[in-house]
Amino acid sequence: MNRDDHAMSQAAAWEDTGAGEEAPVLSAQRVEKTYRNGTRALDEVKLDIRRGEFVSLLGPSGCGKSTLLKMFAGLEEPSHGHIRWWGKNLATVGTPERTLAMVFQEATLMPWASVEQNARLPLDLRGMPRAESEPRVREALRLVGLENFHQVLPRELSGGMQMRASIARALATKPNLLLMDEPFGALDEFTRNRLDADLRDIWSRQDLTVVFVTHSIYEAVFLSSRVIVMAARPGRVIADVAIDAPGPRDEAFRISAPFMQYCKTLSDYLTLANQQGGGHEH
């Protein structure tokens, strides 16, 4: 049996998974990505993400973090291997309890539309009646602290507030899975820390699974229940670190001994990631 035949038989087995254990929200099984120009972006990535987790993808530039996130969003397809959403094919995404939304690096707001109109856009595209969409949008804006800015245009907002509006647009769809591609990377440290704290609070209050791409060790430790460290050339997982830190994630946590130790652990793995060039998963 060749590799593709074996992968097809595996896929059939995953589809027939029984109801005993809840399927992962996301499952990447031996996922590879090679582009037409021969660039090998990902090499046999194996990863399960379960309901309610906040998982950060951390690694050097070119390690395939954003490529993997786009696959999770259904925007790219693997060259080999399979991705499953709640144990099913992508075609089932969007059905009850299986919805996803993505927040990109840029806020990508419509400049001529108000914050409220921007947040309502995906619901309008679905043809949702205004009586149903307006409460959703109001709640989403409240969650991100923009309830008093609903009629403001994007150009009147700071960069951080524009990103809040982008997050509100995603939350208005009531996703079960939220994918975020380094959304705070272009912001100053103070704004970034404040948005991290707000995002962590939103996640803790919602039935939400989050996959978050970042280059920041400090951000990954503050936000995550797990951090996946990836090495480049080609991208692969070299470490899966649980951030088991009870108590609130607040400013005191940022200067605590456990926080510093987690940062040191991830820094060591990133040093390894930068040194490796074609090794194997550890």
UniProtKB/TrEMBL annotation:
Entry's Gene Ontology molecular function annotations: ATP binding
Annotated spans, Disordered: 1-23
Occurrences of domain ABC transporter (ranges): 26-257
Keywords: ATP-binding, Cell membrane, Membrane, Nucleotide-binding, Transport
Signal peptide: none
Pfam families the record matches: ABC_tran
Entries under SMART domains matching the protein: AAA
Record flagged with keyword RNA-binding: no
CDD domains cross-referenced by the UniProt entry: ABC_NrtD_SsuB_transporters (cd03293)
UniProt key word Lipid biosynthesis: no
Family per similarity comment: Belongs to the ABC transporter superfamily.
Name by which UniProt lists this protein: ABC transporter ATP-binding protein
Annotated source species: Herbaspirillum robiniae
